[in-house]
Amino acid sequence: MRLTGKRVIALVDEEFEDLELWYPIYRVREEGAEVHLVGPEKGKKYIGKYGVPAEAEYSFEEIDAKDYDGILVPGGWAPDKLRRYGKVLEMVKELHAAKKPIGQICHAGWVLISAKILQGVTVTSTPGIRDDMENAGAIWKDEAVVVDGHIISARRPPDLPPYGKAFVDALAKA
User: Fold this and answer.
1) Burial classification of residue 44, based on how many CB atoms lie within 10 Å of its CB (0-12 exposed, 13-18 middle, 19 or more buried)
2) Any idea of the CA torsion for 82, 154, 171, 24, to the nearest 10 degrees?
3) What is the 3-state secondary structure (H, E, C) of the chain?
4) How far apart are CA 85 and CA 114, in angstroms?
5) What per-residue confidence (pLDDT) applies to 42?
6) Closest CA to 22 of 10, 38, 13
7) Rounded to the nearest 5 degrees, what angle is found at the Cα of 118, between the Cα atoms of 114 and 119?
8) Distance separating alpha carbons of residues 88 and 65, to the nearest angstrom
9) How distant, in Å, are the alpha carbons of 55, 70, 103, 111, 113 from that of 87?
């Protein structure tokens, strides 16, 4: 239980990619971390692209990033919504400044782009947002998982096993 005592934010909004939300959550919980689902509205049930629900335990406004050891940003269409919330961008910037693990997969890179934390960072994502990542100053690689310091990125669901391991490893070291 390498992550006992660690706390992680898992962001959620409508049309998250079901596996990209739940797989990392379960992986982190398997190692003993506490994970909180955080969305725009506490108690609201958000539905993934394939119909899997996720109920927000906290609203963005209730969370103080300094109380957490890392954050997971799922893919799907949710990142296009998540990046529009100032509080989400604040959380990501605060965790980035503290060099705490930030996990992002698929389209989740949009949130990091909007937080303006990718300049000079080596990442991956779904190839569909490669141009967005590069235009934000990132160095993009077509690899299953890329770890650049505290930023852990992955392309898509088939990359979840190495992504989960890389995020857990980063959290254990933090």
Assistant:
1) middle
2) 70
3) CCCCCCEEEEECCCCECHHHHHHHHHHHHHCCCEEEEEECCCCCEEECCCCCEEECCEEHHHCCHHHCCEEEECCECHHHHHCCCHHHHHHHHHHHHCCCCEEEEHHHHHHHHHCCCCCCCEECCCHHHHHHHHHCCCEECCCCEEEECCEEEECCHHHHHHHHHHHHHHHHHC
4) 10
5) 98
6) 10
7) 120
8) 10
9) 19, 16, 17, 12, 15
pTM metric for this prediction:
0.97
Question: What pLDDT band is residue 30 in, cutting at 50, 70 and 90?
Answer: very high
* pLDDT value of position 16: 98
Q: Of the listed 36, 96, 107, 150, which one is catalytic?
A: 107
What's the CA gap between 142 and 60, in Å, rounded? Answer: 32
For this structure, is 107 an active site residue? yes
